[in-house]
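in:
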């Protein structure tokens, strides 16, 4: 991605699937001076918690309403990608995930990695640990989450695609090993430089991110 002169770390963030077939984008957490800061568990929970469901009502001539069944196409897609390796997803499957995830609760976190590497930097571990605690909280536990890697526009497509996948995998591996989150509840996908958050500034740090989306379909997450 960036040259060694740009520093020893390259930056990636975490969000959900959004506009122009990029995952829905929420604001990244940053300090007042514009520098990245570690996000808290509560901030992550609030961002990823599903919206409250509207109370069920009774019609004048029909029986009691029930919760709507999960969308069949969404359920089929999640079942087909859960447990798959990031590298095994086709470009069509990646776009299908983006389309389904675009309206889901999401958050944008900045996570730094060692330069030209998928190793999480020491300064970003608190944010990843906060993510682990949040995903195992009662409000979120059991949902299926998308962890999507993105890069900026520097470098070739194949290189950035591989880097985005490895960094998404790195986050997943940490969450599984340190927080015992089921690997099948974390769907990892890489988008390389294909879904820039800020297309007008293709080399901006905001484009280097890992997105996290709460797919919220606990039916597909059941073991």
């Amino acid at each position: 991605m960036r040259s060694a002169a740009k520093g020893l770390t390259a930056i990636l963030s975490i969000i959900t699937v959004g506009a122009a077939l990029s995952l829905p984008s929420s604001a990244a957490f940053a300090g007042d001076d514009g520098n990245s800061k570690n996000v808290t568990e509560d901030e992550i929970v609030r961002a990823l918690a599903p919206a409250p469901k509207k109370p069920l009502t009774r019609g004048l001539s029909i029986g009691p309403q029930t919760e709507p069944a999960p969308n069949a196409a969404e359920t089929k897609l999640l079942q087909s990608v859960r447990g798959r390796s990031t590298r095994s997803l086709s470009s069509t499957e990646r776009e299908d995930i983006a389309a389904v995830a675009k309206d889901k609760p999401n958050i944008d976190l900045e996570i730094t990695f060692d330069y030209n590497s998928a190793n999480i930097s020491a300064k970003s571990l608190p944010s990843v640990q906060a993510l682990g605690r949040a995903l195992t909280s009662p409000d979120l536990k059991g949902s299926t989450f998308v962890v999507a890697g993105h890069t900026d526009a520097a470098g070739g497509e194949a290189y950035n695609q591989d880097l985005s996948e490895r960094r998404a995998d790195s986050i997943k591996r940490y969450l599984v090993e340190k927080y015992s989150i089921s690997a099948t509840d974390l769907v990892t996908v890489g988008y390389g430089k294909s879904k820039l958050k800020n297309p007008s500034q293709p080399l901006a740090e905001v484009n280097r991110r890992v997105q996290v989306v709460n797919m919220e379909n606990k039916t597909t997450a059941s073991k």
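note: The first helix runs from residue 41 to 48.
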